[in-house]
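dumping this here before i forget
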Amino acid sequence: MVETRRLYYEDVYIKIFPAQVKECRKGEKGYEILLDQSAFYPEGGGQPCDLGVLGDVPVKDVQEKDGELIHYTEKPFEPGTELIGEIDWARRFDLMQQHSGEHIVSGLVHEKYGYDNVGFHMSSDVITIDFSGVLDKKQLEEIEAETNRKIWENTPVEIFYPEKEDLEQLPYRSKKELTGKIRLVRFPGADLCACCGTHVTHTGEIGMVKLLTAENFHEGVRVTMISGKRVLEYLNRIDEQNRQVSVKLSAKIGETAQAVERLQEENYRLKGQLLHLTQQLCETEAARYEGAGSVLIFHEGLDGDSVRKMADAVIEKCAGCCAVFSKNPDGSYKYAIGEKDGDLRQFTKEMNMALNGRGGGRPFFVQGSVKADEEQIRRFFER
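structure:
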């Protein structure tokens, strides 16, 4: 087994380091490079691995297997090669911010409500935490506020390896029973947890935490959150969206909610008027075709519900079959066809085949659409 000195545990801010290649193996994921020392953190504990370069060769993955720290590349290195490794620092620091923010949130939830963090995932956009109990909106707001107060206190983050007898006296969080040398991470006044990940050295470097969503999950709650730079990027996106809404609604930035409410009220009123006018139109068409027998009707601008209502109304008066068609924006036609006590199943099947349509319903009433123009539809009904 190749032993690798883990530089990320000695100084989490090491970005560039010299190293010697101890071994190079050909594997399923490319070449497996083992070094005498490395600042590349491997995937583990819910935290993604570091990325970067060895020399000029990209490192596409880092894993720990059987105690070995393996760097995966697409090009090989000769054992004994001296090189310079460089991690993607922007990515690493972002992950440090996310992981450290999660510690404080999980620690405070555990302290205040006794809930455990039973699931944790760190993606490229959000962190997901599964807690063993339910938290409501007000409770989450309090946790978020307290988390940020702890961050702004800018206290040092402590990392230590207690002796076994001392460890037994410490109320630390851990998802499983641990043995051997245990690495504890303490965020003073917020969390004490067994963790092998990378973290900031002072809470102020987290910047800020924002809890985004919470939904019931199993017997607890699943919370999504972001920390650090991601909060700024999120706020900038929200601000830009709000700015665009304010322009479209001719409303001040701080008054978009009221403008949307007014728009909803106006929309509701107009829908009521449209419903009334549609009903009048259906009644007019029904009266127009009273006793006419089977009729084919084309009307512009009707939605699917209005097409159905018109066919329903005319069927009651025409004493035959009624087919109503209305053009869609893409040039196709929606339809509703009905006949009192009729059986339209075979007719609809033939129509859909002839006019490239799809749809169905009950024997006496069907709805759907056809990809044909008005002339093609009329010719089919004439036949």
